[in-house]
Amino acid sequence: MNKLRELFEKEDKFLTGVELVNTRGIIQQKNSLKVLTLAENLSNDDRIDWLSITDSAGGNPTMSPDLLGGKIMGSGKNIIIHISCKDLNRNGLESLVWKYASEQFDNLLVLSGDYPVNGYKGIAQPVFDLDSVGLLEMLNNMNQGLTIKGRKPGSFIELDKTDFFLGCAVSPYKFSEAEQMMQYEKLKLKIKTGAKFIISQLGYDIRKSHELLNYLKDNKIDLPVIGYIYLLSAGVANIFNKNLIPGCVVSDEFLEKIKKEKKSKDKGKNFFIDFAAKQFVALKAMGYKGAYIGGIHNYEDFKAIMNKVKEYESADWLDFVKELTNPQPKEFYYYSLDKNTGLSDTNKINHQYSNFKKSSFSKYVTLSYRFSRIIHALFFGYDAPFFKTCKSYYRFIEKRNILSKLSYCNERFWKTIFFRCKECGDCSLPDITYLCPVSQCEKNQRNGPCGGSSKNMCEVTKTGRECIWVRAYYRNKYFNGNKNNLLNKRPVIINYDLKNTSSWANTFLLKDHNAYKGKDITKIP
Fold it and tell me: Shortest CA distance to 301 belongs to which of 320, 264, 276, 265?
């Protein structure tokens, strides 16, 4: 068997993967046996290059993906294990991936994960100690040989190197400029942090799929990209349309088409098979490295799609573009429309993006934010005129308990009023245009947005608020134009040892996650 990374290196091979969604319960029970039977049938199909196993998809508890993976490992198929950050902290995740490495599950799709929607006697408390970027950073370090503290003071142990082939996800199907551009910027950070292949999230707009490839090309990113195809049903389409599964996009117009198809004798089954096959052919023709097929609940569905693919192989894929393009009204595109093909014109950036007016974003630029920028420029930037003065002050009060407590009380008072501070001690306010990720992001995302927002709104609908990274994007664009530098940094991994301590002191004394800037860049003594 060729390893998955070796298959990705073969220039003339278009790969096919199929998603397996685990169930809740023991693997011997009836419902789980259906998934196992499906996995075994797919394992014996030579057209399939890998099987991908989800990690509690949709925020529902299920059996561990490696349990099902272990049942089919001997089949000769490559297996991708999904790993997400919602249920385990960094120690739990490290423990889990040592297990995966020991069991020879080397292909990992690294995700932040969906917010929990179910659990024993109610919704589970999400973790999100790390996000997908932080987890990629940890896994990449493990691949290089993780160095840990030894038992003796000052001693260190270098652990054996792992050999994970790391993948990441990106959504090209976002509604607004802020959502879309932050997805692309976060993708760049994921790649810098160790991702070696890309799988798109789910959508039904082929122009957006085409745009992703061209954006990567324009930014000189040469990694294999896999397009996600999900075999719909009318019921699932309705769920996606209502954003009940975050990151899955079905427009209102496309949903109306599906409702009409549902009235047919087969309830739209042939339409959905045909649509998936056309997506497959289009992705291959555009230059994707492979197709990743989800929504397969029985082996016959997969065979039906592949039979249709064979039927369409000699067709002109551009004939499918109109049918496969199902945008949302007023949706943002990075590139202008090529009227000849119905796809993106890669020679023209969308004028909405390039010829913007500051007034469009003024509602995001509050007086509080303007004031915060001034204070940061004067005091908190490592090259700020009063940084050294503040550093001397915090050095002075560091060992004076009463002064230190009074200073911290003053800090807490102002930061609670202006930023709803939760006293994490490792502050990311300057990273996210003075928006607190602890109090204002359900997943505490410090390295860019998750993929779950819908039309700018947080995936956790009960919050009723915009994604903080949407607000941060527009604030940043107001002052910096299209120079999006929000994620041009090292990954942020919060140090919980600093919780309930002064983040101001931690900044000036070079203890927080940004300390490398003071040590490596400005050389402050």
Answer: 276
